[in-house]
Amino acid sequence: MEQGSAREGARPAYAPGAFPSAPGDARVPQDRASRNRVPEQARGEHTHSEPPAPRAVRRHSVRGQILDALRAALVDGELVPGQVYSAPALGARFGVSATPVREAMQRLAVEGAVEVVPNRGFRVTERGPRELAELAEVRALIEVPVMLSLARTVPAHRWSVLRPLAEATVAAAAVGDRAAYAESDRAFHRAVLALSGNEQLVTVADELHRRSQWPLVAGPATRRGELLADAAEHTALLDALIAQDLTVVQALVREHFNGADR
Questions:
Q1: What angle do CA 97, 18, 62 make, to 5 degrees?
Q2: What is the average pLDDT across 80-85?
Q3: Which residue of 9, 16, 37, 77 is surrounded by the most CB atoms within 10 Å?
């Protein structure tokens, strides 16, 4: 079942423990030379090559890396519920200015992971078991009927191509990597729901799924055994979908969601 404790692409590097102190740990690479380079067009030089990427694109890329790192830190419990973190302090840790950190935190605030504390920074949202149970209930209301419908109509060969995604959850669980598991878990569910052809459904379900992965207040860390049990449900669900066994599909999906409040 989903861990009740965020992220596309490769997991960004940041050192676990003592977050966000210990400056000089993981740093987001910066191309200082390219930042100071004057575009050829600005010097009046003629060129037929593509112009350098705008500075705003480079900043967005840094913000994306910081956002991925912060989401991973949320899932891992490195960002503690109830604590306030300042953008300058986090920026010093990652070796960037406060601006991309602040932009990433504002995105997390929109998602509900943190809340803005004027003149101080951002407080990690405190969540209890009731909220997690409510999220699991809403997810079940959305995903169970969709998966049952897909089980009746999608041919076996289309389910089979999702096998590597299910196996990726097992691999992450085997090493106890909660952030990697959270990412692969969402990737599997997105791929299943995408077969419905409803992009809005996929977006809404993925947002609910991400929120279900944030840590509880004073909640225990998800153990590797729990992650392995959750991952096994993915492979079992895929087998049931291939076999078009609607009874097993429904039972597995509901059990999967009900485990969110473990």
A1: 25
A2: 91
A3: 77
- Render pLDDT for 124-156 as a digit per residue (tens, 0 to 9): 988 888 988 899 999 999 999 999 999 999 999
The amino acid occupying position 84 is V
Instruction: Report cis status (omega within 30 of 0) of the bond before 12.
Output: no
Per-residue confidence at 184, pLDDT binned at 50, 70, 90?
very high
Name which residue leads in pLDDT, 246 or 223.
Answer: 246
DSSP H helical ranges for the chain? 32-36, 55-76, 87-94, 98-111, 129-153, 156-160, 163-174, 178-194, 199-212, 224-243, 246-258
Within 10 angstroms of residue 73's Cβ, the number of other Cβ atoms is 22
* Amino acid 225: pLDDT: 81
The answer to whether residue 70 scores a pLDDT higher than 70 is yes
CB 65 within 8 A of CB 7: no
Q: Which residue has the higher pLDDT, 12 or 230?
A: 230
User: In 3D, which of 1, 28, 30 has the Cα closest to residue 213?
Assistant: 1
Tokens of 155: 């041919």
- How far apart CA 72 and CA 68 sit, in angstroms, is 6
- Phi, psi (5° rounding) for residue 122? -135, 130
Quick check: 141 and 37 in contact, CB under 8 A?
A: no
**How far apart (Å, rounded) are the C-alpha atoms in residues 73 and 96?**
17
Sheet containing 114-117: order of strands: 84-85, 121-124, 114-117
**Cβ distance 136 to 258 under 8 Å?**
yes
